[in-house]
Write a structure and sequence with these properties.
The chain is α/β, with parallel strands linked by helices and 511 residues long. The protein has ten helices and 38 strands. The structure holds flavin-adenine dinucleotide (FAD) and FE2/S2 (inorganic) cluster. InterPro entries: FAD-oxidoreductase/Apoptosis, FAD/NAD-bd_sf, FAD/NAD-binding_dom, FAD/NAD-linked_Rdtase_dimer_sf, Reductase_C, Rieske_2Fe-2S, Rieske_2Fe-2S_sf.
Length: 511
């Protein structure tokens, strides 16, 4: 045993179902029991710092309680994003039933470089783009990586915009970057802050807005979505905002400084997260949307009603089954006119009615009707061309039809599969979709994917927002929605790799 190792626990005291947090000095360490052995890792999730001991250990993996980032128990390596790298490891040993851990982290395993001359183009420096660059190196690719796009010099966590930035809890400049900027030089990623204006899949050539061209061996298109303005009179008046990037959020935050009354158009996740933020600022907030109940299509009506009541309880008003007919104002919006003739006074309007895939620059392949890019299970759209994230029309495991899913972790799951395949592997998408959304201080988890569930079975108290709800389709659990059930959803994130009956899902959630 190294003399510097410190005794941190008794083996017999470590449970098998979850990790145990200990400290060596100021360093938090996660002890994970693996039969009669113990692994020691950093205890805070490398994504956003969740306490990993509150997650789950299942199927040989550690699942983070917050956004379900997943790591191998055996070596801490990354299995599922949104973390972009594995856990820091510490040497551990057991003597006379005592667990000893070194306070010094182990060096990461060096990987053999593969292929040094090829050029990989990553178009879009967002969720998928960041994950793809890091994964290309993880996969052993040693050649040139070009990351193109103008959004920000370092990719950042745009999910914070509608949760913390609009609420005034986080200045736009403090939105967390997805990685340390030093990684660009450490991993030799060429960051070109210029958009791709043309990409010809048949010639494997991209033209950038700065006038340069990139001849690539493989390219990943991960340019996300462009929010769509409303097509009604007055839509170009000042103080009518869309929300996709940090500049949009900054513009909204400035406008909110002089805002007493706001209208949110669209009872979407972004629309209702924005409503939650505006109420925190005591702004009178009205949501206008065409459907009867928010999220009923995704979650079923009962859960949709719960969301609506949660918002109403916190002072949000709704005009459901209504559309905007026009905006009126003198230079800036003053009134929102609905299709039933109602006039609503508003200083600020936020439109959250959906995005269109940002793919108009792509040629040499047929785009889908909605502008999406059809990919196979390896995220391949054509020879040398891959797509990931909001633009990708892919097939879920065991499903027949392609769909686009606009979730952060799905974009990064796609990117990891695509990057491995760009580097010469043959991986397929086997992930479980996961999404989180944040309203009035509560985080809701959504696992799997289903539209218009046949039945919804709720364990727990829906109205107290402490529940797991199983969304059933054709007698199987298609998806799960939950609140304040982090360990159960962490276990389900792994278990739902298989198709589950309700009983099997309940059993898996119990652990
Ligand atoms: C405000 C907000 C909150 C959200 N909250 C959540 C959440 O809580 N949970 C969740 O799961 N999902 C959330 N989402 C959805 C999630 O952010 C997206 O699904 C995810 O970012 C998609 O990743 P992507 O890489 O496909 O696209 P993006 O992350 O949007 O990245 C695409 C990048 O490509 C750039 N680009 C566009 N055109 C070009 C071009 N021609 N050339 C080069 N670059 C280009 C864009 O500027 C952008 O930087 C949220 C989205 C928004 C807008
Ligand atoms: S904090 Fe662990 S995945 Fe986000």
């Amino acid at each position: 045993m190294q003399s510097s190792m410190e005794k941190v626990a008794r083996l017999a005291d470590l449970p098998l179902q979850r990790g145990t947090r200990v400290k060596i000095g100021e360093t938090p360490i996660l002890l994970v029991r693996d039969g009669d052995a113990v692994h020691a890792y950093t205890a805070d999730c490398p994504h956003a710092g969740a306490p990993l001991e509150k997650g789950a250990l299942c199927h040989g993996r550690i699942v983070c309680p917050w956004h379900k980032g997943t790591f191998e128990i055996s070596d801490g390596s990354l299995v599922e994003p949104p973390a972009l790298h594995g856990l820091t490891r510490y040497a551990s040993t057991i003597e006379d039933g005592d667990v000893y851990v070194s306070p010094e982290p182990l060096e990461p395993d060096a990987r053999a470089p593969a292929g040094g001359t090829a050029t990989m183009l990553v178009a879009g420096a967002g969720a998928a783009g960041a994950a793809a660059c890091v994964t290309l190196r993880e996969a052993g690719f040693d050649g040139r990586i070009v990351l193109a796009g103008t959004d920000a010099s370092v990719p950042y966590d745009r999910t914070a915009l509608s949760k913390f930035v609009l609420a005034g809890d986080m200045p736009p400049g403090d939105v967390p970057p997805l990685f340390d900027p030093a990684l660009f030089s450490a991993q030799r990623i060429e960051r070109v802050e210029s958009d791709v204006v043309a990409l010809d899949a048949s010639k494997r050539r991209a033209q950038l807005a700065n006038g340069t061209a990139v001849d690539y061996d493989a390219a990943l298109v991960c340019t996300g979505g462009t929010p769509q303005p409303l097509d009604v009179p007055g839509a170009k008046l000042a103080n009518i905002h869309l929300l996709r990037n940090r500049d949009d959020a900054s513009g909204i935050v400035d406008a909110l400084k002089h805002c007493r009354r706001a209208v949110i158009v669209g009872a979407s996740f972004i629309g209702l997260e924005a409503a939650s933020c505006l109420r925190k600022r005591n702004i009178e907030t009205i949501v206008v949307a065409p459907q009867k109940v928010p999220f009923a299509k995704q979650f079923g009506e009962r859960i949709g009603v719960m969301f609506k009541q949660l918002h109403e309880h916190n002072g949000v008003s709704f005009r459901m089954e209504r559309n905007v007919a026009a905006f009126e104002g003198d230079g800036a919006v003053q009134t929102v006119v609905l299709d039933d003739g109602e006039h609503i006074a508003a200083d600020v309007v936020i439109v959250g009615t959906g995005v269109k895939p940002a793919t108009s620059f792509v040629s040499g392949i047929a785009l889908a009707d909605d502008g999406g890019i059809d990919v196979d299970s390896g995220m391949r759209a054509a020879p040398g061309l891959f797509a990931a994230g909001d633009v990708a029309r892919f097939t879920l495991p065991r499903a027949q039809t392609r769909l686009r899913i606009e979730h952060w972790r799905v974009a990064q799951q796609h990117a990891r599969v695509a990057a491995y395949n760009m580097a010469g592997a043959s991986r397929v998408y086997e992930g479980v979709p996961y999404f989180w959304t944040y309203h009035f201080g509560k985080r809701f988890d959504y696992l799997g994917h289903v539209t218009e569930p046949d039945d919804v079975v709720i364990d727990g108290d829906l109205d107290a927002q402490q529940f797991v709800a199983y969304l059933l389709k054709d007698g199987k659990v298609g998806a799960v929605v939950a609140c304040e059930r982090e360990d159960q959803t962490a276990r389900l994130a792994e278990a739902m790799r298989e198709t589950l009956t309700l009983d099997a899902a309940r059993e898996a959630a119990k652990g």
